Amino acid sequence: MRLSPAAVLLAATLLAGCSASPAPHAPAGDGHPTIVSLNPCTDAVLAEVTRPGQLLAISGYSHDPQSSSMGVAVAARYRGVSGSVEEVAALAPDVVVAGSFMPPTTQQALKDLGIEVVLEPIVSDIAGVRAQVRELAALSGDAPAGERLVGRIDAALAQSAAPPGWTPVPALVWESGGLVAGDDTLVVDLLKHTGFVNSASARGLHQAEFLPLEKVVADPPRVVFAVGNPLAEEDRMLHHPVLADMKDMMRFPLSRNLLWCGGPTVPRLLERLHAAREDFRMRREEGAR
């Protein structure tokens, strides 16, 4: 028998004194478990593969335009939560989906309440994107919805693929503060798919390592994808006047909330990278005339 929200909340506040674990939650009557998502990446996928009323809440990050990967208008349809045990327990979900960084104590507290905990890693390539979508769709009980989303992703991949004979263009994903994207990341996997090669790896740099402005100026890549943060003063480096004088290097703005999540974010990122490649191609052809 499921506990009422009030009873579950009371149990959450008394975890330290509890020795017995309640029985696991039973799925909802229609076979589709109720879910709380605590990760902005899984928020976006679950919003597409769950039925009305099944996704009880999403992470508060998805209500912030700077961190949401699903669009604020879509996120506004769902309750936002911070992820505390008490807050989640009050919703009495069958399942909590979170990132792999969830503290073990939080995981155990939720499990002690009979709530299943599913941890999802940050995907690093397109194969991981497909696998994660299918896993979350299977969890929700609607595998066909997952296949529809995978189909949209595959269609975007086909449309954005580099043309035959295309020579990969050195490109740098350069974030606020001078941080670069490393090879083992989704954005770089999609860069390669659309006709670019990661300039950071050629410099011996890995994920989230620092590349100063001086080194970019001394050895510029052909393309820079500038990933800014409007709230960070470090953006002044991404928009330094010296970069505007570098005629052989093109800059394209790239939204930071497109970089790390799979699911419905992927077609939007592919569209942006495809547009940048075509812009680069046209400018190169014009310069050759």
Description:
- With 289 residues, this protein is of the alpha/beta class.
- It has 2 domains: 5-121, Nitrogenase molybdenum iron protein domain (Rossmann fold), CATH 3.40.50.1980; 165-288, Nitrogenase molybdenum iron protein domain (Rossmann fold, 3-Layer(aba) Sandwich), CATH 3.40.50.1980.
- 43% of the residues lie in helices and 14% in strands.
- The protein is built from 13 helices and 9 strands.
- It has helices at 5-13, 40-49, 72-75, 85-91, 104-112, 126-140, 143-160, 186-194, 199-202, 213-218, 235-238, 241-244, 265-288, and strands at 35-37, 55-59, 79-81, 95-99, 116-120, 169-175, 196-198, 223-227, 250-253.
- The strands form 2 sheets. The chain has a 5-stranded parallel sheet, with helices on both faces. Strands 7-6-8-9 form a 4-stranded parallel sheet.
- Helix 1 (5-13) runs antiparallel to helix 4 and helix 8 (186-194) packs across helix 13.
- The longest helix is centred in the C-terminal third of the chain and has 24 residues, at 265-288.
- The chain starts with a helix and ends with a helix.
- Mean pLDDT is 87; it is low at 1-29.
